[in-house]
Amino acid sequence: MVHTYNRFPVAVQRGRGATAKDFAGKAHIDFGSGIGANALGFCHEEWVNAVTTQLQLVQHISNLFYTLPDALLAECLCQITGYSKVFFGNSGAEANEGAIRLSRKHGR
């Protein structure tokens, strides 16, 4: 692997909650939440069940199609925020591009 950053001398085999276990069975607490990208911990039962259920239906689809989870989340977000539409992006770069386009549209 390219050494783009320093790694801890730990090889994680499994995790539960905030605790990861290495191949020797030693427990390590993840205080970094997966470098801030995953604050749910490891193997949260509700998350595992939700992902497993969705994987049995459709594991991936492009944004050229509608899906029930997209529609339900969009409706929920609109109710919470009071906005009439939402934008789902695949990455931070796409989210930034969408924000720039939205700013330009409303600035004109």
Please explain how this structure is put together.
The chain has 108 residues and is α+β, with helices and mostly antiparallel strands. The chain has two domains: 1-59, Aspartate Aminotransferase, domain 1 (Alpha-Beta Complex); 61-108, no CATH class. It is 38% helix and 11% strand. It contains three helices and three strands. The chain has a three-stranded antiparallel β-sheet, with no helix packed on it. A hairpin with a 2-residue loop joins strand 1 and strand 2 (19-22). The longest helix is centred in the C-terminal third of the chain and has 16 residues, at 92-107. The mean pLDDT is 90.
Blueprint of the fold:
Elements: E1 12-16, E2 19-22, E3 27-29, H1 45-55, H2 68-81, H3 92-107
Antiparallel strand pairs: 1-2, 2-3
Short description, anyone?
By secondary structure, the chain is of the alpha+beta class. It is built from 3 helices and 3 strands; from the N terminus they run βββααα.
Keywords:
108 residues, 2 domains, three-stranded antiparallel beta sheet, extended
